[in-house]
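re: the backbone from monday

yeah here it is again, tokenized this time
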């Protein structure tokens, strides 16, 4: 019993903190930093975004690994599999997988093109790629907020 409690406690802490980091970072970037950076000239703004996203995406990759591992540790190490848990966990897992797929698309496609365009100082291409990243991060932000709502309310669903 103590081993199960320890697994549950550690996994839940890692899972929650990783989700807060990812969703909170998206909210900050999308709703706070983006509007504040709009007054900067294009080159300065795009170079700032390159530095910000490079750092943030490294943290997101770590968060994804921790969310994935801790989620499955809870499902299988505490509850014995998906059969014994509520629908809210299935929904969170599905949303999490969609969010991860969107993130990896962003990371390996528009962000890669964005990074290359900033390196060439091709501000028009960089701005188009950043706009695509913004839309996809916005989608992930909404999915992340829904996931948080499910996580906090799901255990109380009838």
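seq for it, each position gets an aa:
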């Amino acid at each position: 019993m103590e081993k199960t409690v320890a697994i549950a406690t550690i996994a839940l802490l890692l899972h929650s903190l990783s989700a807060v980091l990812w969703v909170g970072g998206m909210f900050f970037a999308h709703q706070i930093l983006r509007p504040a950076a709009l007054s900067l000239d294009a080159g300065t703004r795009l170079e700032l975004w390159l530095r910000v996203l490079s750092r943030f995406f490294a943290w997101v990759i770590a968060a994804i690994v921790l969310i994935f591992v801790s989620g499955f540790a809870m499902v299988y190490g505490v509850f014995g599999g998906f059969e014994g848990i509520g629908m809210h966990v299935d929904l969170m897992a599905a949303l999490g997988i969609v969010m991860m797929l969107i993130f990896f698309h962003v990371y390996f496609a528009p962000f890669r093109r964005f990074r290359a365009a900033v390196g060439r100082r091709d501000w028009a291409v960089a701005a188009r790629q950043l706009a695509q990243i913004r839309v996809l991060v916005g989608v992930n932000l909404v999915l992340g907020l829904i996931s948080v709502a499910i996580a906090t309310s799901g255990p109380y669903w009838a």
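The radius of gyration is 18 Å. The chain is about 85% helix and 0% strand.
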